[in-house]
Amino acid sequence: MTSKVCVLGAGSTKYGKLNESIIEIALTAAKDAIDSAGITPKEIQAGYISNVFGVADKQVHMAPVIMSNLGISHVPGLTIESACGSGSVMFREAYANVAAGFYDCVLALGVEKVTHTGTAMSTTLFSYCSDFFYEGGNGASFPGLFASMARAYMTTHKATEEDLAHVAVKNHENGVLNPKAHVRKKITVDEVMKSPVVASPLKLLDCCPFSDGASATILCSEDFAKKSGRPYMEIIGSGRGASPAAVQGREDITTIPSTVAAVRSAYKMAGITAKDIDFAEVHDCFTIAEVIDIEDLGFFPKGRAAHAVRDGATRLNGEIPINPSGGLKSKGHPIGATGVGQVVEVFDQFTGRAGERTVKDAEIALTHNFGATGASAAVHIFKKVDRK
Amino acid sequence: MAMSSSMHGVRERFIEAAGRKKILAHKCAKCGHLMLETVMYCEKCSASKFEDAELEGAGTVVTYTIQAVAPQGFEDAGSYAWVVFKIDNVNLRASGFLPGVATPADLPVGAKVQVTGFDQKHGLMLAKT
């Protein structure tokens, strides 16, 4: 039997090209989250950190370094890596430990700093997240792997490159409203179509940027949250899933099995269905990923998402707003932080901090984040707690 | 077919078979399920005894991409496609490096490919047939 777990505080740095060290970036987000929760570091009983390429900024074993710099060097920490899904996979472990009663209050923080390595090195580093013997080792980059998924989807479901472009346009439309987004610029379908090909059929504006950044949350027991007297949200669903690590291992390349398994588990735990979700933050590292995600998450039937996006169903005022933050595509993708950043967006939405991108009357939201081409995934569902 | 239960050197054996234009797979000795050589336990029944199954390295393109920015080690590879292909006559897919492909018009989905070898720098080499 597990206990209710709540998110009491959340904070993020701006995502983009940041000059500070990876530890300074992490500490900035940690302080934001701690301040927003109205606690002091001494109330934190454990620290969960997600990061992938700390070695690129000369720092691994990051959790104790962060805890020490928060003045709580005696607090145990754990650093978790799960490629681009590190943040949500780590968040799940933090959630599970509070739900199990080991802790009443923990820090869950994701951080990444990679832009200083340059595009060529970043592309190479990211290729190490693939099943390297079969993918990176045969010349596939990450845009290439998702491009292969895009070609399979377009072939099977008669979707077009223009359909995919609409995902990018919508996410940039939202990202313009997010002061912490990496790329705050409206784009058009024509601009996406005319942008340089990165890995056919994906073009530059189908791809998320390499970003630096950190996001942090404070998770706690329901009692702890209630006693704080501050706004919070409850985690009502948590699910994990896994897929064959290599794309070649999947019978159907137009779906991601880890997403399907994770969301099934999360919906079951929450006792709801896709129809009950008011908005979602999903893993749109490439436009094709968002199209596949929103089908796998149950928002649209298989083969229909590309058309739904084109029709505006996923815009801020659509039937199911997707990525009000701007998503990975516009907000940015600091891979160790991304999954936590999605939770920060939900917290901002539920606590009146989302400004012009606020989804009206939202009470239940979903976050979805995966590693590599979906080899690992986690889904969380949150419910706004009305303190009136 | 040789019986194997050790995973020592599986990649080397896969590479050696590719040099003979074959794909080396594992066939579960208990349930007959076919997997690529590098899987240690059967995906269906978790048994760990396999027969080596040497498959003809011919197949059909399921999907692919042609990249403008190549990862490290492939900068000098020229235009190439990274290809996922279904191996003929079995329900198994593999992926490889297909040189000399510059545009999607050069490689329709459904095209036939053949393993030509294994290059230490570029991996499982393919050619259109």
Supply the helix-strand structural class of chain A: alpha/beta
CATH topology of the domain at 5-117 and 210-228 in chain A: Peroxisomal Thiolase, Chain A, domain 1
Q: How many E-type strands of chain B?
A: 9
Strand arrangement, major sheet of chain A? 3-2-4-7-1-8-11-10-9
**Unreliable parts of chain B:** none
CATH H level of the domain at 5-117 and 210-228 in chain A: which superfamily? Thiolase/Chalcone synthase
Q: Proportion of β residues of chain A?
A: 15-25%
What order do the SSEs of chain A take from the amino end to the carboxyl end, as H and E? EHEHEHEHHHHEEEHEHEHHHHEE
Q: Please, what is the average pLDDT of chain A? A: 97
Provide structural commentary.
The complex is a heterodimer of chains A (388) and B (129). Helix content of chain A is 36%, strand content 18%. Chain A has 388 residues and is of the alpha/beta class. Chain A has a domain at 5-117 and 210-228: Thiolase/Chalcone synthase (Peroxisomal Thiolase, Chain A, domain 1). Chain A has a nine-stranded mixed β-sheet with strand order 3-2-4-7-1-8-11-10-9, sandwiched between helices. The radius of gyration of chain A is 19 Å and the shape is globular. Chain A starts with a strand and ends with a strand. In chain B, a hairpin with a 3-residue loop joins strand 8 (112-119) and strand 9 (123-128). Chain B has a five-stranded antiparallel β-sheet, covered by helices on one side. Chain B has one helix and nine strands; from the N terminus they run E-H-E-E-E-E-E-E-E-E. Chain B has 129 residues and is mainly beta. Chain B has one helix spanning 10-19; strands at 3-4, 22-28, 34-36, 50-56, 58-67, 80-87, 93-99, 112-119, 123-128. Chain B folds into two domains: 3-56, no CATH class; 58-128, OB fold (Dihydrolipoamide Acetyltransferase, E2P). The chains are: A alpha/beta (388), B mainly beta (129). The interface between A and B is medium-sized, with 37 and 31 residues. Strand 5 (197-200) of chain A pairs antiparallel with strand 5 of chain B, so a sheet runs across the interface.
